[in-house]
Specification:
Number of strands: 17
Distance between the termini: 23 Å
Largest sheet: 6 strands, mixed
Radius of gyration: 25 Å
Shape: elongated
Structural class: alpha+beta
Helix content: 25-40%
Strand content: 15-25%
Strand order of the largest sheet: 1-14-13-16-11-9
Number of helices: 16
Length: 535
């Protein structure tokens, strides 16, 4: 049976551990994440009068005791001490600022050297500060803090934010900047930089509103989203929901290639807010595969350009890294989801996903339910882990960003330097000789894959290769077997839900190809396993 190529037919899928020829039709109830309280109550609000004097609209919720306890339970490391929060404010809103990180962003395109500038930025200064700043503002809403304490932190913030004497108003945005700040990192001397950004934002707004049937979130009582250009620790951030989008002015000047993708990325966070993310539902870890991953998808969707190449390449260079443990770099899965899921739906898969999230507030469950509802019950792709296994296989064929007819949705993706980003899949290369046996002891995450390529000795007289997979206790895996020849990869078998020692013989027809590919994919409870091959 074929798992790759054009129209996918997995009707003959075999599920080991559940009975032969039995298609997985349900998802175990244990997979449903039960979170204490996700839905947000309606809180009191704190506005920032000093910032309002500068023309900046910003408000945060002041939580009641119950909501605050839920935030503390669902947000590891949330600051609860006032002095510690003030120290955090000094880092996020420093009066004397760092040097611009924009040069490091540009240098970070070479991803494989260690340590890369991009790696340093990713670790110390996340490219998008949505989560970092949101946690800060959430902490500021601690009901134990007094009004005087909040105003003291606001004064600290005020000292780091310049006066914005320049303003440009468009249909949906008010863009503000300065060229007179004592901190040169705040300044944008060329108005054209802002005008170009305004055009990029309006284009993104129109495309998002048309595609999703909703517009990006605008605070209640507001008419436009405010855009601030100043010296910040990240390329941009869009939190809290009732606040402006901030862009790093110095990086905006020095690295023009980030303007299109980063503006789309931050605006997509505002669209997420319109679907209940942070405005109705409290996210629980891990969620950045959803929040940052889908915002990175918006860069590719709107502009076919990314602010950082690793968003496309990392899931190929480290394919054994689980989807839910990913962030910006799970972009390829979202591209695959948008393209291949559309085969089973008349509507946009990303629209269906956000609508489902808005309804239930659980991003993992929303993903599973959208996949279940769009594929027929008898189709193996009705089940998330089989759907992901197809994604894993299509990374070999390079069809992962095509629909099932082979039509590409994203023919090329550019980096910030305008060059085409190419992906290279990390595959373990091995030789399998006559009478030889190979064994690999590995570990794979849930919704992640290990790839093995075997060059089989053309002189073998064996008519098959014996393959054995031994998962550890409570580990569930999938396995794909394929043969590779120049310009072609053809799958011969796919095995789902391997939960115990399993072996089979793969027939050898070396006149067609002597390169065997084995893909081991983690399902809902992945982990340690061994793989053995014997001629």
């Amino acid at each position: 049976m074929c798992f790759a190529g054009r129209k996918v037919n997995l009707s003959a899928i075999t599920t080991f551990g559940l009975g032969a020829s039995k298609v997985v039709k349900t998802i175990p109830a244990i997979l449903h994440r039960t979170n204490l309280v996700r839905k947000m109550p309606q809180p009191d609000r704190f506005s920032f009068p000093k910032l309002h004097e500068k023309g900046i609209s910003l408000a945060i919720p002041v939580h009641n005791a119950g909501a605050w306890q839920n935030y503390c339970r669902t947000t590891p490391g949330l600051t609860t001490n006032f002095e510690q929060l003030r120290a955090q404010a000094a880092k996020l809103f420093p009066a004397s600022h760092r040097a611009s990180i924009s040069a490091a962003v540009s240098d970070g395109l070479a991803m494989e050297s260690e340590p890369t500038a991009e790696r340093i930025i990713e670790d110390e200064f996340p490219e998008c500060g949505e989560d970092v700043y949101q946690n800060f503002f959430n902490a500021l809403g601690n009901p134990a803090f007094t009004l005087a304490e909040r105003r003291l932190i606001e004064s600290d913030m005020d000292g780091a934010i310049p006066e914005f004497e320049q303003e440009l108003m468009t249909d949906h945005f008010t863009l503000k900047w300065t060229n007179s700040s004592e901190n040169v990192g705040d300044n944008i001397p060329d108005r054209a930089v802002v005008e170009d950004t305004a055009s990029f934002l309006e284009t993104a707004w129109n495309r998002m509103s048309l595609a999703f049937g909703r517009s990006p979130y605008v605070p209640e009582g507001g008419e436009r989203i405010e855009i601030l250009f100043r010296d910040i620790e990240t390329l941009g951030y869009a939190s809290p929901p009732d606040g402006p989008i901030n862009f790093d002015a110095a990086s905006w000047i020095s690295t023009p290639g980030i303007r299109k993708p980063t503006s789309a990325h931050e605006l997509f966070h505002k669209l997420q807010y319109a679907f209940g993310y942070r405005t109705k539902w409290t996210p629980t870890e891990p969620f950045q595969w959803f929040s940052e991953g889908s915002a990175s998808w918006a860069e590719a969707y709107i502009w076919q350009q990314l602010s950082r190449a690793s968003k496309l390449t990392k899931l190929f260079s480290t394919p054994d890294f689980g989807l839910y443990n990913s962030s910006y770099d799970c972009l390829p899965f979202w591209m695959f989801f948008q393209m291949r899921q559309s085969d089973a739906s008349d509507s946009s898969p990303m629209v269906s996903f956000l609508e489902k999230y808005d309804l239930i507030g659980d991003e993992q469950l929303a993903l599973r339910q959208v996949i279940e509802e769009n594929w027929p019950l008898t189709d193996p792709l009705h089940e998330l882990h089989n759907f992901f296994a197809l994604f894993s296989f299509e990374r070999i064929t390079n069809n992962w960003r095509n629909n099932s007819n082979g039509e590409p949705g994203y023919p090329i993706i550019l980096g910030p330097d305008e060059s085409v980003i190419n992906t290279m899949l990390s595959i373990s290369e091995n030789n399998l000789g006559v009478g030889a046996g190979l064994q690999f002891d590995n570990k794979v995450d849930s919704l992640a894959s290990d790839y093995f390529r075997f060059l089989i000795d053309a002189g073998t007289t064996a008519d098959s290769v014996q393959i054995q997979i031994d998962p550890a206790v409570n580990v569930k895996l999938s396995c794909s077997i394929a043969w590779e020849s120049p310009g072609d990869v053809r799958q011969t078998r796919y095995f789902a839900s391997i939960t115990q020692s399993f072996s089979f013989a793969e027939p050898l027809v070396l006149t067609n190809s002597n390169i065997l590919l084995v893909v081991v994919t983690g399902r809902e409870s992945a982990g340690q396993y061994s793989l053995r091959l014997q001629l």
